[in-house]
Amino acid sequence: KNQVEQSPQSLIILEGKNCTLQCNYTVSPFSNLRWYKQDTGRGPVSLTIMTFSENTKSNGRYTATLDADTKQSSLHITASQLSDSASYICVVSLISGGYQKVTFGTGTKLQVIP
Amino acid sequence: NAGVTQTPKFQVLKTGQSMTLQCAQDMNHEYMSWYRQDPGMGLRLIHYSVGAGITDQGEVPNGYNVSRSTTEDFPLRLLSAAPSQTSVYFCASSYRGSSYNEQFFGPGTRLTVL
Fold first, then answer.
1. Which of A73, B36, B91, B101 is the most buried (most CB within 10 A)?
2. DSSP letters along A5-51, please?
């Protein structure tokens, strides 16, 4: 079982609508959680990063929340645009003394239609 | 800045052939890594490097070799290609190896092994 589970696997919404993507993780001890956006045929691009002490972080129309007690995060997209069509990947990092130890979720594929 | 560049963008190999996937970054980042992305799975770490001359194995290193002779370049070599290595390969770099440092991804190489 993947230590980072995302839901739904895919989602279709109308342009202008809001949506919320979920990420549940079991990675422990937890260091930080990052959301990436991956356009088709491109590499992932970071949207937000949150440490265990932060419970919300915004980047324009993207707002990420984190509940470290329940090990859940969500990414809320407001007033969706066609350009929001992409996969959204949740990445959780372990506390480590040195280098990155990250676990990637499988992603939620979002399609925004006119 | 070009960021992280990868070549080729697409490649088809026959079983048993060898090849090198190229990766370069112009951001003077210490940390570089290679991932593979397969359908239904999160990105998985193949190899990483924390600086010129220093490399280490990730989660799925078998069948791949790396070297880091310069800060800028981090090539990935497939020694004897197998159909199980059909995947999309991403190179990434970050300022340091800490997970707090954003990883910048290249555009990917889509590899098919027949």
1. B91
2. EEE-SEEEEETT--EEEEEEE--SSEEEEEEEEE-TTS--EEEEEEE
In tens, the pLDDT along A12-57 reads 999 999 999 999 999 878 889 999 999 999 999 999 999 888 999 9
Residues on chain A touching B48 (C-beta within 8 angstroms): 99-100
Cα→Cα distances A66→A75, A76, B48, B89, B103, Å: 9, 12, 29, 30, 21
Q: Do A44 and B94 touch (CB under 8 A)?
A: no
Do residues A94 and A33 lie in contact, with contact meaning Cβ atoms separated by under 8 Å? no
Cα–Cα nearest to A91, from A19, A33, A9, A16:
A33
User: Which amino acid is located at A43 in the chain?
Assistant: G
For B98, the closest of A2, A44, A100 (CB atoms) is A100
Residue pLDDT, tens place only, B49-69: 999 999 999 999 999 999 999
Could you identify the residue written with the tokens 């300022």? Answer: B95
